[in-house]
Amino acid sequence: MLYECRNGGCGECKGTLLYGKVDYGTYQETALSDEERAAGKVLLCCATPLSDVEIEYVPTETAGQVPVRVYTARIAKMNRLSHDVMQLNLKVQGDEVPFFYAGQYINVLLPEGQKRSFSFATAPHERDHIELQIRLVSGGLFTTRVFNELKEGDTLDFEGPLGSFFLREDSEKPIIFVAGATGFAPVKSMVEHAFRTGLKRQMYLYWGVRSLRDLYLADLPRQWERERSNFKFVPVLSDPAPEDNWTGRTGLVHTAILADFPDLSNHQIYACGSVAMVETAHPAFVAHGMSEHDCFSDAFKLAPQLRTEGAEMVRLGGRA
Predict the structure, then answer these.
(1) Residues 190 and 213 grouped into a single domain
(2) Are residues 142 and 44 in the same domain?
(3) Least-confidence region, from 157-161, 162-166, 259-263
(4) Could you count the other beta carbons within 10 Å of the beta carbon of residue 105?
(5) Rounded to an integer, what distance in angstroms lies between the CA atom of residue 247 and that of residue 287?
(6) What is the CATH number of the domain that holds 32?
(7) Which pLDDT band, with edges at 50, 70 and 90, does 319 fall under?
(8) 52: domain range?
(9) What is the pLDDT of residues 106-139, one digit of tens each?
(10) Is residue 80 part of a domain?
(11) 139's torsion region: left (phi>0), alpha (psi -120 to 50) or beta?
C-alpha cells in the first residue's frame, strides 16, 4: 500500500506544521513541492522534530483502509452514569453503524465548525447503535451542551471511524488495560469485542479514578470478572473520600500495575486516559521490561498553541 513507502515518495503522510521546527529529511520533490513546503506542509515519515511541534493531519482512510465518512445520528437515549459522566446512545440515520475497530473513535461535528472526539464504547458487533461516554468538562463547548441542552431525539453529525488505538489480535501475550476516568470507554469496546470473538488471552483491567463516585460503571467489569476466567478487574482510587470506606487499591494506577507485574516483558499494554497519566506510566513500564512494540495508548491533551481559533483540544485524545 502507498502509505507504507516510508521514504518520502508517495505523499500520503503529508501534514501541516502548525508550530515548531523540523528537519525535513530526504524526500522526493514529487511528493512535496517547494510551494507546499513554503505553505507549511511536511512529510511525516521523513521529518525529524527540532523542537516541540504541533502538526495537523487529516486522514482519508484509517486502519484497514476503512474510509472516513460523515454521518447523521439521532440521540436515542441519554443516561447519566455519574455526577459528571453522560452516556449517549446514537442511532445512525439512513445507514447502519459504520464498520470500526474496537478502540477507535469519532469526531462529533459542531455547528461552529469545531470537532470533539469520543471513543466508541460499543464493540464492533453492536450494529444498531453507538454508545459514547461523555465526561463534563468545566466550560467545555460541547460537554456543557450535553448536560444542559441536548435531549433525546436531537441529531448530531459525526465523522469516522478514526484512530489507530485498537485491539491487536495477532499476539498471544496477556493484555493489561490501563484506563483513567472515561478512558474506560474504548477499553469497554475492546474487552467486549475480545469476548465476542472468543479471545482466550488473559486480560487485566486497572481502572484509575479519584474517588468512588468517579467509578461510574464498576458493576460491569465486576460482572466480566465473575463470568470470565481470563479477565480480572482492579479499580484504583487516587484520593478516596472518607465516606467511601475504601479498602481496595489506592495511589497512582500505574504503580498498582508495577506492584503486581514487576516484569512487563511478556505483556501488551493498552493505556487510555489523560496525557499526564500516559506520560508518567510509559517510562515506568519501559523501565520494567515493556517493549515499545507492545504498548498502545490514547491520551487526552489540551492544545493551547494551536493556531486554529477556538480549537480547544486535539486528539491525542481529549474532549470538551
Answers:
(1) yes
(2) no
(3) 162-166
(4) 25
(5) 29
(6) 3.10.20.30
(7) very low
(8) 2-56
(9) 999 999 888 899 999 999 999 999 999 999 998 8
(10) yes
(11) left
